[in-house]
Amino acid sequence: MNEQELMTFVGKGVGDVAAMVNGALVALGDRLGLYVAMRDAGPATAEELARRTDTAERYVREWLAAQAASGFLRYLGDGRYLLPAEQAVVLTDETSPVCLIGAFQLASATVQSTDRLVEAFRTGQGIGWGEHHHELFPGCERFFAPGYRNHLVTTWIPALDGADAALRAGAAVADVGCGHGVSTLLMAQAYPTATVTGYDPHPDSVATARKRAAEAGLADRTRFEVAAATDYPGRYDLITFCDSLHDMGDPAAAARHARAALRPGGRAMVVEPMAGDRVEENLNPVGAAYYGFSTFLCTPNALAQSTTALGAQAGEARLRDVLTDAGFGTVRRVAETPFNMVLEARA
Question: Are 293 and 106 in contact (CB under 8 A)?
C-alpha cells in the first residue's frame, strides 16, 4: 500500500464530496437570487444579503461560508463576503459563453434520478428524457443557450459552405431535437427570410418552444412540431442537430432521414459535445462532466428507444462513420469551442 497515493486519493474523494454538495448549493443560490444580489454590489454580510433577497439570515450565513470554502465567494475576514467580477460572469451572466449556472441546475436535476439509474443498470432498460426531474429541461436549456447565443449564427452557420447566404436568401431549415427551441429561435431571429421549423418528440418541450416563439414575436415565421428524428416531413436546405444526435436511439436512421430530406446542395450541421475519439483523450474536467451526464441522461434516453447509444463522448470519428454510412459524401469539422464540436455533412 502506497500511503502517499492513498492519502492523495482520500483528499480527492473529500474534494469531490464537497463539490457534489456545493453543486446543489450553487443551484440553490441561483434559485434564491443570492448570486445576482451580490453581483456588482460589493462585500456583504449574511444579514445584508438576507435582507436583499428576503431570506433567513441564519441559512444565508451558512451558505456564504460553504461558498467561500468551495472558492465560489471570497471571504474578507470580517463577516463580509464578495462575489468577484470574474465569478459573477460564470454564475450570473447568461449572455456570456462561459456562463455555467445552467449546468448546475441541470446537474442538480440529473442526480435526482439515481434510484432509477440503479434499476436501469440492473435491467439494461432505458430512461427517457421526460422521465427525469422537472428541472431537467429548463436546466438543459440554460446550459446550452449561452454557447448557442454566442456562436450559432455568428460563427457556426457562417462556417458552413454557403449556408449563411442560403439562409439570407430564404432557405428552409429543420432543427431536429430542438427541445425548448433556443437554437431554432436564434436562427429565425438572425435570418428573417428563412423558414425555420423545430422538431422534437417530447410534446411538453414543443409546447414550451411555441410559448418561447410567441414571447419573442417569432411565432408567425417559426413552427414547432412533435416528430421523431426519423419521420419529420418536408425538404430542407439546412438540417441541424444541436446537441441531439447522440441522444437518439437510432442515430444512423436519423442521419439517413436527414440525408433524404435535404434538397440538392443542402447540408446538415451536427453540433456535438467536444470529445476525442479515445477515452484517454477525454480524461479531463469537460470529459468528466459529459461522461457523467451521458451515464445519467444520454445513454439511458437512447436505450429507451433502441439498443444503440452513442453517448455524449462519441468523438468525431464515430460521428463521421454514422454520417458517411447514411450517405453523406463529405463530413468536415468546421468549428469548435471548449464544449462543442461542429460538423458539416454534405452529399
Answer: yes
